[in-house]
UniProtKB/TrEMBL annotation:
One of its GO terms (molecular function) is rRNA binding. One of several proteins that assist in the late maturation steps of the functional core of the 30S ribosomal subunit. Helps release RbfA from mature subunits. May play a role in the assembly of ribosomal proteins into the subunit. Circularly permuted GTPase that catalyzes slow GTP hydrolysis, GTPase activity is stimulated by the 30S ribosomal subunit. GTP binds at residues 112-115, 166-174. Residues 63-223 form the CP-type G domain. Its main location: cytoplasm. Belongs to the TRAFAC class YlqF/YawG GTPase family. RsgA subfamily. It comes from Lentibacillus cibarius. It is found in: Cytoplasm. Its EC number is 3.6.1.-. This is Small ribosomal subunit biogenesis GTPase RsgA. Zn(2+) binds at residues 247, 252, 254, 260.
Length: 293
């Protein structure tokens, strides 16, 4: 029996990467009976033959997984956020951060197009950079030039399994192509009805890049907070999670409760006001969604 990681899944076949090379495998029928679908990123055990093929026998427990794209055991999500065209959007950035934190994935924030900003805007965006770094996030603020982005990005890829996420129009597919030119990913024009680019990749694959692995399709097809409960939301904001034990009430939602350490930290300027406002906005969104049966 051999162990490896699935790096590609297509039409019922799985390419499994091992120290000995890549083996093309199929899944045992028992997976269908148990409704288990092996995902790209899964660690698996398989029987191999001399033709470089095999059958997957078991799937190891997952650290995390995404539905769109379908991928498991991601260690890092690179959030690409534009400083301009489209304008920097802290609310959207925080939504991505919450989704990533909820999946137990390490975020890395990349703010691009620094060279297209006037000096006053550079100072403003640098203020956001400093704020998120104080929370504990790694933030890179880079120019739009491909060489500058790649230089900063490649140092973060080593030893990681990464997905790239971010708002439409920030150049996620272009970034992937620059990391690995063999991908030749194409993105259609931005859909006027959906307001987002229509990606043409039909399968998911982990490709080698900067001594790490990167998913060849942008992450987070949906930005809904459907899988996050009101109780869990605070844990997706590190600065709120850190202060939760100091609240008077054990189940404090940091909203209307008295003697709340989080609200006190906001008043004292320890927690950024915009971050708290986004927390309340997301909390209202979660509380107002219809129950699923």
């Amino acid at each position: 029996m051999t162990e490896g990681r699935i790096i590609k899944a297509l039409s019922g076949y799985y390419d499994v990467k091992t120290d000995e090379g890549v083996f093309r495998c199929r899944g045992r029928g028992v997976f269908r009976k148990k409704k288990i679908t092996p995902l790209v990123g899964d660690f698996v055990e398989f029987d191999k033959n001399t033709q470089g093929e095999g059958y997957i026998l078991s799937v190891k427990p997952r650290e995390n997984m995404l539905i769109r794209p379908p991928i498991a055991n991601i260690s890092q999500a690179i959030i690409v956020s534009s400083a301009v065209r489209p304008d920097f959007n802290p609310l959207l950035l925080d939504r991505f951060l919450v989704l990533i934190e909820s999946k137990n994935i390490q975020p890395l924030i990349f703010i691009t197009k620094k060279d297209l900003l006037p000096e006053s805007e550079i100072v403003r965006i640098a203020g956001y950079k400093s704020l998120y770094e104080k929370i504990g996030y790694t933030v890179e603020f880079v120019s739009s030039g491909e060489a500058d982005i790649l230089h900063q990005l490649k140092s973060h890829l080593a030893g990681q399994v990464s997905v790239i996420a971010g708002q439409s129009g920030v150049g996620k597919s272009s970034l992937l192509n620059a990391i690995n030119p063999s991908l030749q990913l194409k993105t259609d024009d931005i859909s006027t009805s959906l307001g987002r680019g229509k990606h043409t990749t039909r399968h998911v694959e982990l490709v080698e890049a900067g001594d790490g692995l990167v998913a060849d399709t942008p992450g987070f097809g949906s930005l809904d907070l459907n899988d996050i409960t009101a109780e869990e939301l605070g844990d997706c904001f590190p600065e709120i999670s850190e202060r939760r034990p100091a609240c008077k009430f054990r189940g404090c939602y940091h909203y209307k409760e008295p003697k709340c350490a989080v609200k006190q930290a906001v008043e004292e300027g320890i927690i950024a006001e915009h971050r708290y406002e986004h927390y309340i906005r997301f909390l209202d969104e979660i509380n107002s969604r219809k129950p699923r049966y």
